[in-house]
């Protein structure tokens, strides 16, 4: 019986190249996002530990029940934050379209979808600013919690301390993402990526933006739903 040796001399790894064929900058972005996820994870684990070790906690339906233009007696639980979440999810879709257009080297579509992504990010930040201002008007801030526990007992400051810290930290990431996307938009309009022959920077910015959106899902679940 004849034995073939085809492929036995193939050198699969000679060094000097990534075995995963990942561009250096993209790999570093993954490392950064992984380290950043540990920070968010630590915040949320600390929040969960304190919450479920407490005897009582404010009801999110009683805390987050208003929206711009609503009256003092309005009771629309989670309507406003649902709109915020929808805006952020849509901005993630437009970011995907920008990355896809970059793969096709379609400068116009990249710029258009980046603009929509930036608008979505700014809209989310505007909504968050209104929510913070509204809660502060009701007396909520770091070290101050006007909301009683769901069972009617007096609540500690832990709720507001965690809420403003974690949502503020996430909001800072959204702001950073908006700034990054503005830089990407300017570079796109100036033809920087056309000269380089690729739109890899758009893909890296997209990874960061999707991470920010994904983290919001966990923040939304922890503070507004549970």
Q: How is the topology of this model organized?
A:
Layout (H helix, E strand, L loop, with lengths): L23 H29 L7 H4 L15 H25 L3 H31 L20 H32 L2 H5 L3 H26 L1
Helix pairs in contact: 1-5, 1-7, 3-4, 3-7, 4-5, 5-7
Tell me about this structure.
67% of the residues lie in helices and 0% in strands. Helix 1 (24-52) runs antiparallel to helix 5 (158-189), helix 4 packs antiparallel against helix 5 (158-189) and helix 5 (158-189) runs antiparallel to helix 7. It has a single domain, classed as Up-down Bundle (Four Helix Bundle (Hemerythrin (Met), subunit A)). The chain is elongated and about 65 Å long. By secondary structure, the chain is mainly α.
Q: How would you concisely characterize the structure shown here?
A:
This protein has helices spanning 24-52, 60-63, 79-103, 107-137, 158-189, 192-196, 200-225. The protein has 226 residues and is mainly α.
